[in-house]
Specification:
Helix 8 runs antiparallel to helix 9. The protein folds into 3 domains: 57 residues; 112 residues, Uridine Diphospho-n-acetylenolpyruvylglucosamine Reductase, domain 3; 230 residues, Vanillyl-alcohol Oxidase, Chain A, domain 3. The radius of gyration is 21 Å and the shape is globular. The protein is of the alpha+beta class. The strands form 5 sheets. It has an 8-stranded antiparallel sheet. The model has no long low-confidence stretch (mean pLDDT 92). Bound molecules: flavin-adenine dinucleotide (FAD). Flavin-adenine dinucleotide (FAD) binds next to strand 3, helix 2 and strand 10. The site of flavin-adenine dinucleotide has 32 residues, from strand 3, helix 2 and strand 10.
Length: 451
Amino acid sequence: MRLPDGRPVKEAEHLSGWGGVPSSPAKLIRPEKVRDLLPPPEPFIARGLGRSYGDAALNQEGFVLLMERMDRFIAFDAEKGIIQAESGLALDDLLRVIVPRGWFVPVTPGTAFCSLGGCFASDVHGKNHHHEGSFASHVLAISLQLPNGEVQVLTQEDPLFWATAGGMGLTGVILDVTLMLKRIETSFVKVRHHPAQGLQELIHLVDDESRDDAYSVAWIDLLSQGEKMGRGVLMTGHHASTAELPLRKEAALVNPTVKARKFPFVMPSGLLNPTLLRWFNAAYYTRQRNRGEFITDFRTYFYPLDAIREWNKAYGKRGFVQYQFVVPSESGREAIGQIVRQINDAGSASFLAVLKRMGAGSGGPLSFPIPGYTLALDIPFRDGTPELLGELDAIVADAGGRVYLAKDSFLTAERFRQMYPQLATFQTLKSQVDPDGKMTSDLARRLEIVS
Ligand SMILES: Cc1cc2nc3c(=O)[nH]c(=O)nc-3n(C[C@H](O)[C@H](O)[C@H](O)COP(=O)(O)OP(=O)(O)OC[C@H]3O[C@@H](n4cnc5c(N)ncnc54)[C@H](O)[C@@H]3O)c2cc1C
């Protein structure tokens, strides 16, 4: 199929996010250059590298623009650490260029296989949110193509900049991003592990400023029971200085090549059952709790899952949901305890569950972070999962928290409005730049962000 202007369109029967659920049919356009980005004849949404888990980058009622080939570097000031690149550039490719020159991304999610545009549109956070805020706070400017084709250069002074940060692609197509980088002396991270034997102790460790470092994340064993329920390991770290490195100085800024293995096949759904996972978690806890302090390369610390390509196949054809929420500190401990118990009782958790602290939000009306605790966990999809998620959503909303749109697939419009009170501010700005509702997605319709 071709558009009237000759651009090829590929039709996909099932397009999904990283979790594999939900999926929808899609008409795909893969622009190579800005001139290929003329708005298509029907409503559309941009898609980066498809690492959002749910339906944010799906659009069954129109087109999906695959931005992956718009991945060129535009400018790099290696003295000041300012980089401008097209929005389809993967963090992975950016790191290959900047790390050997002594720079790092100021905020990174747990995978390097996401695009600059996707990071801005989700206003992603990292293990340093409580110190450094989210991705958009470090972006100096973006070029945004509005749904009518006009291109605007936006800075942090512009309300539309902030509506786009966390705006899940609904204000326009981000063409390029100008990012302020962070200086590093070495490409290694000095890590310290602090074990906790139960959930309350783990939350206490997460709060303990004397143990805090530039980065901080706690892995939780959501399948252990009784007194051990919620036991885990707090993993803190900072970019190692040359002095901290027990290696030759010349090796201090290498970009480590981690040999990625591919997950060989789609596992039969149900093979990752609670018994197997309980055993796996226990083994992981035992191994991690005694590691103390050590130095590791940045890829192993920040992107452990990237070492296995297509690891999402481990959940089988039915896929999985990544559930991530943030709850304010005061009401949060209670809510986290309730959710951990509920998941434990349902036997629904998997290996991947992490708890982090969050600092102040960036100001984007749909940006996810608020001060408090955020918990992210994988839930294998099965019958009853949507109902379980509905119950968890209620606990989160009652605690004054919210669910992360980049991971979500099942939130209802009503709960969403409760969780994101600045929705009206977003909708006002959206209607100014997109009066005809040309930018939309499955997520936007489900949550009634667009009518
Ligand atoms: C293993 C793993 C770990 C993760 N860890 C974290 C984490 O620690 N913190 C965190 O915040 N997130 C995390 N994520 C989520 C991920 O960082 C975000 O979903 C991110 O948006 C993915 O980028 P992407 O390029 O794949 O975007 P996609 O998934 O393709 O799209 C995500 C959103 O961005 C929009 N978008 C993409 N490109 C553009 C563009 N050029 N213009 C306009 N809109 C655009 C899409 O419309 C969509 O709404 C993780 C994901 C995985 C798979």
